[in-house]
UniProtKB/TrEMBL annotation:
The lineage of its organism: Bacteria, Bacillati, Bacillota, Bacilli, Bacillales. Appears to be allosterically activated by the binding of pArg-containing polypeptides to the pArg-binding pocket localized in the C-terminal domain of McsB. Belongs to the ATP:guanido phosphotransferase family. Catalyzes the specific phosphorylation of arginine residues in a large number of proteins. Is part of the bacterial stress response system. Protein arginine phosphorylation has a physiologically important role and is involved in the regulation of many critical cellular processes, such as protein homeostasis, motility, competence, and stringent and stress responses, by regulating gene expression and protein activity. This is Protein-arginine kinase. HAMAP family: Prot_Arg_kinase. It comes from Neobacillus massiliamazoniensis. A motif (RDXXRA motif of the pArg binding pocket involved in allosteric regulation) lies at residues 336-341. One of its GO terms (cellular component) is extracellular space. Residues 24-253 form the Phosphagen kinase C-terminal domain.
Amino acid sequence: MSLERFINHAVSSWMTAEGPDSDIVLSSRVRLARNLDQYKFPTLFSPDEAKQIINSMESIVRDTDDSNRMDLLKMDEMQPLQKRVLVEKHLISPHLAEDSPYGAVLITENEEVSIMINEEDHLRIQCLYPGLQLSEALETANQIDDWVESHIQYAFDEKHGYLTSCPTNVGTGLRASVMMHLPGLILTQQINRIIPAINQLGLVVRGIYGEGSEALGNIFQISNQITLGKSEEDICRDLKGVVSQLISQERSSREALRKTSNIQLEDRVFRSYGVLTNSRIIESKEAAKCLSDVQLGIDMGYIKNLSKKILVELMILTQPGFLQQYAGGPLRPYDRDIRRAALIRERLNMEFNR
């Protein structure tokens, strides 16, 4: 399979589409945790109950019209590599892929909406949009939520709100997050003072794949921690306010670098570009660092002939699962580094041939 055909089949719409402030905000995500009434939570339910929940969701999707069409994928029917690719595309969590033998996921054709089944909660409704579109993601999530609730009854308490396996999700059950590319704040050494300030506002800063992951390629996820005592709209509005400030600070940092270190920054960008276009072997950390530099060069106008979404696309396509899927089978780490370098070179060459 050619790389172009592979990309056309493998890349989600949020990875290639542009949204508001998408030079800094790569994506916005809203996730709603829900549990079905009359069933034990996933930490205690039986295999039969887990299967009944999957069958209920399958029945809902089967009986709906094409506008809400979703495909059902069961974890016990998928190969480990297939599940890993879904994790790398942010469509399912590592927990669902690795620790949920009776799990499943419903995914729309454009992959903007996914519903994880029998993860930590019975349902995790997720909407993923390009750029800063928290309100739009919340609106879609609420529509899907209402559609599901019209068919089944949720576990809900008038005082505490939606009931969840983890107490930190009780209330709205909402986790809103924004994925941001912040090289300016890194290069000007401001990020270390900003992160503690964000944490004090009830938000948390994580790496590209959430809790426990590293901030590869200067990519960070900012998300809410509080779900009880605030409405969904308030949570998203507060997060958007902080993100808007980060966008402003990142833009100011980039302009400061242009004024004080322009030639050094341009040199850094093109050195990284040279590494990506000429390397025959490259590890994930080095690739992430160089891709971040090149994306910064695109955003600041140093590089004019590359896609504006090259960073997020290649950050995901060069993850281990995708590399092995493209290769057609398992690869040793060393062979993945070779394949990663070749894929990046070929992808960058595609830009010149368009």
